[in-house]
Amino acid sequence: METISAVVIERNEEKNIKECLNSIVNKVDEIIILDTGSIDSTLSQLEKIKTNKIHLYNYLWKDDFADARNYAWQKATQNWILWIDADDRLNSSRDDLEKAIADRRNTEIGLVNITEKKSGHTMPTPRIVKNNFKDLCFFGIIHEEIRARKKLDLKEFNSNINFVHTGYDDNEVVARKKKRNVKLLKRMNKIEPDYQRWVYFLSRDGQGILDPRDIIELILKVTKNFELVDLKYNLGMIENLISASMEVGNINMVYENIQRLAHIYPECVDAEYYMSLMEIQKNINERNVNLQKLYSFRKRMMENQNKSSLINSNGYHLDKLICFLLYDCFRYDDAKKFKEYLDKQGYPSMLSEEQLKMLSVI
What we know:
Number of domains: 3
Number of helices: 13
Number of strands: 10
Structural class: alpha/beta
Order of helices and strands: EHEHEHEEHEEEEEHHHHHHHHH
CATH class of the largest domain: Alpha Beta
Strand order of the largest sheet: 3-2-1-4-7-6-10-5
Helix content: 40-55%
Distance between the termini: 62 Å
Radius of gyration: 28 Å
CATH superfamily of the largest domain: Spore Coat Polysaccharide Biosynthesis Protein SpsA, Chain A
Strand content: 15-25%
Mean pLDDT: 92
Shape: elongated
Largest sheet: 8 strands, mixed
């Protein structure tokens, strides 16, 4: 019978460690915990867990995730290793694990389905590996991957193993981790500048941190022809390019890559999403132009002593239309001001009951 080591690398995980371990303790044969310098109550919580399966090791953090994983790997003694983060929960049974690794003589890496608790988004991710440190190891100081020490053709298998990723609620923690990731990914990109994995993750994690023009340049350097790009990262890099192009307002590049996305991945729903998003933005832009024209016209006409109107000589009907357009352009604060002005004049707005409810809570 195949046996399983679970490996958890953690630091300051007092909010997560207990639930994580409870989800695996009765499903694996041993648990390797690598603590990289906790200063909260994580270690004291570990002492309270009644099991002889847990083996705790202290590790001096070196800003190198592969080094930490390789250190922990060498402590595992079972046939297979299940890598699980402290904010993950294993939702599969021991039987599920045994079925997943049974008769896998010619495959080394297993994919598990990781579902984000908040969004429900699921991604297959390599988290099962044959315990063969002689031939395999992790490489990469961030977003590390399993590589063969020699020229071996590594094979992956899909599994029905399911994790739930709870993530972190503290926005400061998330922002700090993101900045750390970008810093380390820049180093990996210098080490292997032509490897698309680092470009994909840097262009993804760098959104909101890096200049979007730099992201575009970064991607285009390694994607002379998207049809020849490594399929693992092709889809992600096209979508990262679309996002960066949107940010800088390069509409031609946006549409070019939406079409590329639809052509290479006809089953991917994201192309339709981006196309619809662009059409919505186009409509919003057009409404903003019309709004500005109407606002300028109103101002000009109100200064005209010879103006006339059969609808309202004070131009309140123009204010009514401006109020509606402001709401339609998501300028709720401005719409509310115009609505309050119309109310004072005793003139009805064009807003529906639902729209009025929305303004009432702003």
